[in-house]
Amino acid sequence: MISYSFKKARPKSLFKKDTKFWLAFVGISVGILVGLQIALVIKSKMIMDNIKTTRIEKDNLIKKTEMTIEEYETLKEHVAYAASINNSDTVLRESMKNLFEIVPDKITLSKVEMTTTTLSIFGTTPSRDIFNLQFAPALKSIFTKSETSFVRGDSGNSRFISINYIEQKDDESTADTAVVEPKEALSSKERKSTGKKGH
Amino acid sequence: MKKQDGFDLTKALSFLLVFIAMAMIIGVGFLVPTVRSLNKQSILLEVETRSYNAVKEKYDEESRRLNTLKKENETALTAITTTFDAKLFQKTTQSGVKTFQIQKIDESTEGPYSFVNYGVSMTVQNPKAIFDFLDNIGRSGSLIQIVTPITISTANNGDIIASFYLKAITTELASEKSDKRSAKIGGGH
Known about the structure:
The complex is a heterodimer.
Chain A: H1 17-102, E1 108-114, E2 118-125, H2 128-142, E3 145-152, E4 158-165, H3 182-185, H4 188-192
Antiparallel strand pairs in A: 1-2, 2-4, 3-4
Chain B: H1 9-72, H2 74-81, H3 86-92, E1 97-110, E2 113-124, H4 127-137, E3 143-154, E4 160-171, H5 174-185
Antiparallel strand pairs in B: 1-2, 2-4, 3-4
C-alpha cells in the first residue's frame, strides 16, 4: 500500500484526552454522590427497622409488665387469703386449748359445742357454787352473754348446761371463731387450779 | 484557534457546569432530604430507646417484686395450689387417734377458689390428741380451714369423740395463667 503521508497512521480515539478526563471526573463524582445517597437510604431503612423492632419489643414488655403486676396482685390476694385462713385456724385451736385450760379441776365436761358465735358446755359440777365461783366468771369475762342451767344429779353432783354467746363485730369477717383468752379470763388463783383437763 | 493537544477552556467550563448541575440536582433533590430524614429518624430512635429502657426498668422492678413475694410466701402459695388428698391425710394423721373418719360432703367454687368440704369424726383418748391433730392440719401441705361447729363429747367408755368440718381450699396457679399468656405474646427482652 502506497503511503502519501510522512506520519505513520495510528488509531484515533472517540474522545480526546481532556474530554476523557472530564467525563471520568464527572462520572466518578456523580457515582460517589449516588453511592452516598444509597448508603444514606440503607442507613435510614436500618434505623426505621430498629425503631419498629424497639416499638414491638416495648409493647410486648408493657403487656408483660401488666401481666406481672396482675400476677403480683393475684398472688398477694392468695397470700392474704391463706394467711387469714391460717390465722382463723390458729385462733380456733388456741380458743379450744384455752377453753380446756380455764375449766377448773372439780368440774367435768361431758360435751362441748363450739360455733362461730356460741359455746355450749355440758358437764357436771360438785355444786352450783363451785361453778359460779370458779368457772362462771371466766366465761362471763370472755363472752358477752352467758346462761347456765343446773339439774341435780343422782350422786349429789349437779349437771349443768352453759350456753355462751359472743357478739361478732361486722369488721371481723375473717375471725369466725370465738376467742378465749385465759390470761384475761382467769384470776391468778384460778389459773393455779387448771392442771386437769375436763372431759 | 485551538491547539490540537492544548487546554480547551470552553469544554472545561461546559463539563464543570454539567458537573455542578448534576451535583446540585443530586444534592438538593436527594441527599439533603435524606440527611434531614435521617436526623429525624435518629432522634426518634433515641426517644424510642429511652422509652423502651424506662419500660424495661419498670418490668424488671415488677418482676423483682413478684419474685420476692413468691420467695417470701413459698409455703403459703404451695399450700393454696396443692389439692387436698383426704386419703393421704387420713393415713398421716393417726398418731394418738383411735378412730378417724373423713368424708367429702360437697364442693363449690367462688371466684378463683375451689372449696371442698369434709366432715371429720374422730375418737381420741385425751383432748391433747385433738389439739395435736388440729396442729398437724397446717402441716398437711394444703390450705385447710377448720370449720365450726366443733363438737367434743365423752363416750361411755371414756373416749372423747370429736366431730367438725374441714374446708380444703385450692386455686389455680397464677403463674401458670401468666405463662400461658406470655407464650401467646412471645419473647421480648
